[in-house]
Design brief:
single chain; 154 residues; alpha+beta; Trna Endonuclease, Chain: A, domain 1; five-stranded mixed beta sheet; two-stranded antiparallel ribbon; 25% helix; globular
Length: 154
């Protein structure tokens, strides 16, 4: 089993993997400066007619909980904003492509299910400032987003 990488290295790797996949599809993808609060990549068509912003969330093969959203996004009402969830596997990676607001709604749905379910001892769960989104909670619609780059509209 490979040595566990730092969260920062995992996140950066995911961003570069997304840029590489877009490059293979003929889309120019450029990383933004670190700590940009809303997106990580700007992607532009070859003819410069279409541009979008992409937030990347990455988990490695060592992650057993799913993607963590530390600063949980609210709906942005921006059709040019997307999220790519990267699942780094031992030999390759899977990419789940979402419109930003659609993913925001899905993550909140799963969180509400979690928060409404009492703890084992019957006590209510407390609201936390982050959210998890895990493959075990994926619907058929979520699964249809796997490696579906057409969602980005290029």
């Amino acid at each position: 089993m490979a040595e566990k990488n730092s969260n920062s290295l995992v996140g950066t790797t995911g961003e570069y993997l997304v840029c590489a996949e877009l490059g293979k599809k003929g889309v120019l993808a450029v990383l933004t400066p670190k700590n940009n609060p809303l997106f990580d990549i700007v992607a532009i068509s070859k003819d410069a007619q279409k541009s979008i912003a992409i937030q990347v969330k990455t988990m490695s093969e060592h992650n057993k909980q799913g993607w963590k959203f530390t600063k949980f996004d609210k709906e942005q009402n921006n059709p040019k904003l997307f999220v790519v969830l990267v699942n780094i596997l031992v030999e390759n990676a899977d990419f789940y492509i979402y419109e930003h607001d659609e993913l925001t709604k899905r993550v909140e749905e799963e969180y509400q299910k979690y928060i409404e379910k009492p703890k084992r001892n019957g006590e209510p769960r407390k609201d936390v400032g982050f959210r998890w989104f895990d493959l075990v909670n994926f619907t058929e619609n979520d699964k249809s987003k796997k490696n579906n780059w057409k969602i980005l509209g290029f």
